[in-house]
Amino acid sequence: MADAIRLPLAVFYQREARHPNKRYMVQPLPGGQLEELSWADVGAQARRSANWLRSRELPQGSRIAIISKNCAHWIIADLAIWMAGHVSVPLYPNLTAESVRQVLDHSEAALVFIGKLDDWPGMAAGVPDNLPTIGLPLRPPGQFSYLWDDLQACAPIQDDPTPAADQLASIIYTSGTTGMPKGVMHNFSNLGFAASHAVELFGVDEDDRVLSYLPLCHVAERMFVELASIYAGQTVFFAESLETFLDDLRRARPTVLFGVPRIWSKFQMGVYSKMSAARLDFLLKLPLIGRLVGNKILAGLGLDALRYALSGAAPVPETLLDWYQRLGLEVLEVYGMTENCGYSHVCRPGRFKPGWIGQNNPGVEVRIAADGEVQVRSGATMQGYYQDPQKTAETISADGFLRTGDKGEQDGEGNLRLTGRIKEIFKTSKGKYVAPAPIENLLAVHSRIEQVCVVGDGMAQPLALCVLSEVGRREASNGIRGDLESSLKSLLEQVNQALDKHERVQRLVLVKDVWAVDNGFLTPTLKIKRTVVEGTYGPYFADWVERGETVLWHE
Question: pTM for the full model?
Answer without folding.
Answer: 0.82
